[in-house]
Specification:
Largest sheet: none
Low-confidence stretches: none
Structural class: mainly alpha
Number of helices: 4
Shape: flat
Strand content: under 5%
Order of helices and strands: HHHH
């Protein structure tokens, strides 16, 4: 019985991973992910001097970090790519 439950859980995990990849792949998904990162403190500090605000911002940030973790994405690499894209836009 326990083995059957483990197989079922594994199938659900694979299905969830596939769903995340489907949602966040392609230009629209990348744009949404970038928006989430920009507006929920992945690219900036969560500290603002007010403990409650900082805790709230950390909560927002953790949701986006979980998405990145499920997608197996490296935050540092994403930040570098964003910098390169912004530099290219400025140079145009």
């Amino acid at each position: 019985m326990a083995q059957k439950r483990e197989v079922s859980l594994a199938k659900r995990n694979v299905a969830r991973l596939d769903a995340y990849k489907t949602v966040f792949s392609g230009p629209a998904g990348e744009a949404v992910l970038y928006d989430l990162m920009s507006n929920h403190h992945v690219l900036s500090s969560t500290f603002d001097g007010n403990v409650r605000n900082t805790i709230f911002k950390e909560g927002e940030r953790n949701v986006v970090l979980r998405i990145l973790k499920v997608l197996n994405m490296d935050v540092a690499a994403i930040k570098e790519r964003i910098k390169q894209n912004e530099s290219a836009i400025i140079d145009e």
